[in-house]
Request: fold
Amino acid sequence: MKPTPLIQAKNLWKRYGDNVVLERMNVQVNAGEFITMVGTSGCGKSTFLKMLLGMEPPSSGELLLEGKPIPAEPDQSRGIVFQQYSVFPHLTVLQNVILAREFERSRFLGKLFGAARRRVEDEAKRLIETVGLTPAVHRYPHELSGGMKQRLAIAQALIRQPRILLLDEPFGALDPGIRADMHQLVLKLWEEHQLTVFMVTHDLSEGFYLGTRLWVFDKLRRDQQAPTAYGANITYDLPITRQKIIAPQETSAIVEHYLRDSQDKATTEQELLLS
Amino acid sequence: MKRLINLTPSKPARVLLGILPFALILLVYLFASDARQAENASDKLLPAFSQMGDAIQSLAFEPSKRTGDYLFWQDTMSSLQRLALGMGIAALIGFSLGILTGAIPTIHAPLAPLLTVISLIPPMAILPVLFIVFGLGEISKVALIVIGVAPFIARDIQRSTQEIPLEQLVKAQTLGSSSWQILLRVLIPQMLPRLISSVRLSLCTAWLFLIAAEAIASTDGLGYRIFLVRRYMSMDVILPYVAWITFLAFLLDWLLDRLSKRCFPWHHQEASK
Ligand SMILES: Nc1ncnc2c1ncn2[C@@H]1O[C@H](COP(=O)(O)OP(=O)(O)O)[C@@H](O)[C@H]1O
Ligand SMILES: [Mg+2]
Reply:
């Protein structure tokens, strides 16, 4: 018997008034997949993430988490990193990361003190170490660069071990060099935390490089007179099997070589897609 | 020659230019006062600085013959007390209302329209109502400040709360927080520096209400004194009192600014970016 998929969309539609954003989406995602999503701006990628979060209800059809409708509110099972405004400006790096634990363990005050706090801080410091922010642990977000802020946002999202991590163009505002570092970080965390990742990107090669599966969102039907009459759908659902090879860590050298190869491949596929 | 909009004076020049108008006003006053005094030694309209000094000397450093108090300091204390009480209560009410209506739609729905209408009532127009309801004592003066200022603070905080990016609220929920925890750990701390700037903005109106209330019904206070001595055309008391009120207002504003910068460094760096 096949296990229930983690996420399942069944004839899913999303409309805002007359504006059909997504239509007839049927898709299944298993635990551990790394989905990357590309598509023209405004075609509904963020809307799909919002539905996964529970911020937006489906207009019709079903969106299931382990066979049950997705909870209608965001909760700790699904973490998110936005392009910006993801961290709290009034808290230091450490305070931002322990916040989720404070919410969990101090229902009334939302704040921990004494030994309980130190325990959580130790846990947070390990996570901060993994994302490479140890030197900045007592700084405020306004003292961090864009890349550091996104590292912080990721660490903050992971401390309560969500099963699903949603990334909405998380690296869109970063320089290319910093992006490459972030890619390594995301791949490492994806593996270590056994996450299922949904990531929107506007960079196709990034999508091919990171994902185990790439979705291209586009409209299948178009009406020139009424551009909002039809919604987008997943027009290409490409498995990127090569990425799977990354799993055994001993072979990282070989993998790196492999990946460079796959990136070249990606660009050719990119050309194919755009033609 | 550069365009006018590109010409920026150097720092010392800026300081000098800043002082210049003050010096000019002082100078003009000195001349005018001297001229009038020369003509009529008992002139009351433009007293010399020495006369003002004498007046304040007797109010501030000699006990009053009638009550034995040092009137100047007693006036100051009474006024500041009323101001602090009024502003404190207004800040508390305004902050709570602003955050709750800004963050919680089911509280926003019934209260926001009411708040808008209340903030449109001219507070001076209901001063008689306050006197009738609360009597002529301290309560009505404090109440006037509260009524005049709290709606402004509430609406200001409400707007700022609504301007918190939705991303932050969603993020907090994905970290497992309840509504109460979001209020406590996300919204209230971020609104505290806003509250301080809101209070700074409304202090000016608060002074206005304070002085008005003291002028109408009081037995002490800075506003009371000014309006009392007006009957004797005692400009030698009025002018130093006005300068003193201005100085107090400036000092309060400065202290609040310092407090905000010290307690909420993240807010000020954020804003200057
Ligand atoms: N809250 C909303 N109300 C009305 N329309 C919305 C709302 N959110 C998004 N939309 C519309 O949905 C469409 C898809 O938006 P979005 O998912 O943000 O696109 P993408 O992330 O792919 O760029 C856009 O046409 C946008 O105008
Ligand atoms: Mg988007």
About this structure: Chain A touches chain B at residues 53, 55, 73-76, 78-80, 82, 84-90, 99-100, 102-104, 107-111, 140-143, 153, 156-157, 160, 162 (CB under 8 Å). Chain A has two domains: 7-77+162-274, 87-161. The first strand of chain A starts at residue 7 and ends at 16.
